[in-house]
Amino acid sequence: MQILRKTNLEALDKAMELGPDNVIKLLEEKGLVGRGGAAFPTAKKWKTTKDTISDKKYVICNADEGEPGTFKDRFIMMYNPQTMIEGMLIAAYTVGAKECFIYLRGEYSYLLPRLQEHVDIVLDASGLDVSIEIVRGAGAYVCGEETALIESIMGNRGQPRYKPPIPSIAGLWNKPTVVNNVETLTCAAQAILYDDWNKDLRLFSISGNVSNPGVYELPLGVKMSTIIDIARPKRKLKAMSFGAFGGIMPIDENLVVNEETIMSANCHHGAYSVILIDESVNVVEVCDSIARFYTYESCGKCTPCREGNKRILDLIKKVMAGEATNEDLDLMNELAQHIMDTSLCGLGQTSGQHIVTALKYFRSDFEKYLKKSNS
């Protein structure tokens, strides 16, 4: 796997030979984009932080991998952590930062002792005057959003900020801050060192009622039939979900998996998690589980997300109790759209995606529960 290639501080040496401007130029040429879900150009983010004048700058590795069905960053931290750490040092050198942080998901606390060992090893070998502190999250999904993560590191309640300003200009303690995902920073080191680094490879987290769940490195444009062959589902498939915020769409073995095809189905690729759903599952049950998740994980800062997701959960309960009508389904769809259009951060802005897509593709699953006089 490309993601497991070691760089052994050779990428850092090369970066220091190139200089900050040429590092940014090289990453731009290599086409590295963020692997946390937004796919923002890494070179552009680093350049913004580098060019912003400030007495202090920071680098943060976002290891708060809380999206249901996503576990690729854990895989990297288990099997190639030193390359990720080297990517952080390269980012720090490029933008002029002296302090770095790894924000580790609370549920990954078992990784902390070994990760700290790797941090110490890489820092000692690098000789750079840079610090890396590991901050353990408290299990809040919203802290995967970069500004909520920043607030958490500062000791504040983990809630998103209004933007602008963006973190690259005013982030941690209102200083210019690079926030990159675990996979992005690992790829940054590999892209700098290896001429044959392939920008089109992605880590897919595959799960569901399958025989071979796990992390697989596959190229963009892979056919869904290949993913299904790898996963070996235990029953006939019905649907696929791209995590809680990614939406639900019918299974299509001929689908060419890339950002364009997934978004054309009104779904989001996110970090390329694929949860395979078989015919034994009613999609309403999936939506109920996701709605419970969002109701619990909403930070409460903005009204649409705080109140709207609770209302969606109430409507799903009404459906499952056999008390809903088609008008309730239409209301649920309208409410989900409103929440996504008016929420402050990415959590709320995607929290209705499972409802919108499920009602679009699997309305019959909902209709099975409706009052008999309305079915």
Task: Provide a brief overview of the structure.
The protein contains 16 helices and 11 strands.
Give a structural overview.
- By secondary structure, this protein is an alpha/beta fold.
- It has three domains: 192 residues, Rossmann fold; 78 residues, Ubiquitin-like (UB roll), CATH 3.10.20; 92 residues, NADH-ubiquinone oxidoreductase 51kDa subunit, iron-sulphur binding domain (de novo design (two linked rop proteins), Up-down Bundle).
- Helix content is 46%, strand content 15%.
- It is built from 16 helices and eleven strands.
- The protein has a five-stranded mixed sheet with strand order 6-5-11-8-9.
- A hairpin with a 6-residue loop joins β8 and β9.
- α2 runs antiparallel to α3 and α13 runs antiparallel to α15.
- The radius of gyration is 21 Å and the shape is globular.
